[in-house]
Amino acid sequence: MNFITLLLNIFDPLKIVRNYILKPAITIIVAMLESYRNKTRQSVQTTKNAMLRVTLFTFLIFILIWASIFMYAYFYYSYMPAVSHVKDVHMNYRRCEYHNCEIYPEAEVILTKNQQLLMVGQPYKVYLHIDMPESPKNHDLGMFTVCARMTDQSNKHGIDSCRLAMLHYKSPLLKQITTWMLSPLFVFGYREEIQHISVELFTNFEDDQNYPITKVKVQIKSKDVQFYSVRLQIAAHFTGLRYFMFNWPVLSAVVGISTNLFFILIICMLSWYHWDDNEWLDEVRERYKRITQRSEELLATAVAPVVGNLVKSDLNAISPLLDENSQTSESVTKEKDIESITDDDNISIIEELGSTKSDDDDYFLDDHGGKITTN
């Protein structure tokens, strides 16, 4: 540092270069660096603020989207009923209670114990699926009747239905061709000579909220019918919005979530606008003050007559007592006055007696009535 100062003194003894060249240049460079540093700080702070705003905005949008999804899912599971209920039916021949009675295979299916299984207001279709072999006996049987009765827990309220059914007809030639073509599958057990018969017992059944259906009694009115298994199916028949939501679930989900998000954004924007503008808060405060003042005035005007009446009634009730107290106080004061008067008289008499006694102590009378002092 001393060497540099020495060189400057040698080459610039009058300080012209230092005062007019170096100092202005250094000042300009320092100012430029300071402005650049300030701009850098401002840009960094602006970038931080922008990143913070973007993060908050992204988080808010994420919450709103998930809220919309949750609202749609809640609406879907509360509005859409179960599509189908399938129960196995274990058929059996009941005992004959009297002579020459008809014995048919029947069964009672318990849908639920106490709670309501079906949605109120939703139409349902009730099917009975019967797996029947293509046996000669079933072909010779022809038409047969299938009946069902749906009742509540108490068996007092219910609905009945009966439908006809039969095997699908096949000509002998078609049977032979089908048997020859599918014989390998029949041999190895991959196929069976069986037909699936579906009988629609109820078309548009709607459950009653007061008397919900809890069990179904099924009966096939044929003694010679042959079957492998029987199943009861209760399928919901969708119409309107439920039909759209069931058949196009993705499209309905997109529309529902977008609608929820749109309304949530509108509510958030209106809330932000109201909270950002504080004038409405001042108006609310003024209205609250006016309401409280008005209520106090009304309360005062309403309470004043009641208080006056109460005070009057209390005074009327207390006045006899006050009169008695005043009379007793007057009598007491009179007695006190009398006592004070008697006390004063006694005091005067005592004083007189004392004075006479003092005089007697100072002199006595002689035989002629003259006073003779003792001292």
TrEMBL record:
<keyword id="KW-1133">Transmembrane helix</keyword>
<protein>
    <recommendedName>
        <fullName>Seipin</fullName>
    </recommendedName>
</protein>
<dbReference type="Pfam" id="PF06775">
    <property type="entry name" value="Seipin"/>
</dbReference>
<feature type="transmembrane region" description="Helical">
    <location>
        <begin position="20"/>
        <end position="36"/>
    </location>
</feature>
<keyword id="KW-0812">Transmembrane</keyword>
<feature type="transmembrane region" description="Helical">
    <location>
        <begin position="250"/>
        <end position="275"/>
    </location>
</feature>
<keyword id="KW-0256">Endoplasmic reticulum</keyword>
<dbReference type="GO" id="GO:0006629">
    <property type="term" value="P:lipid metabolic process"/>
</dbReference>
<dbReference type="GO" id="GO:0140042">
    <property type="term" value="P:lipid droplet formation"/>
</dbReference>
<keyword id="KW-0472">Membrane</keyword>
<dbReference type="GO" id="GO:0005789">
    <property type="term" value="C:endoplasmic reticulum membrane"/>
</dbReference>
<keyword id="KW-0443">Lipid metabolism</keyword>
<dbReference type="InterPro" id="IPR009617">
    <property type="entry name" value="Seipin"/>
</dbReference>
<feature type="transmembrane region" description="Helical">
    <location>
        <begin position="56"/>
        <end position="77"/>
    </location>
</feature>
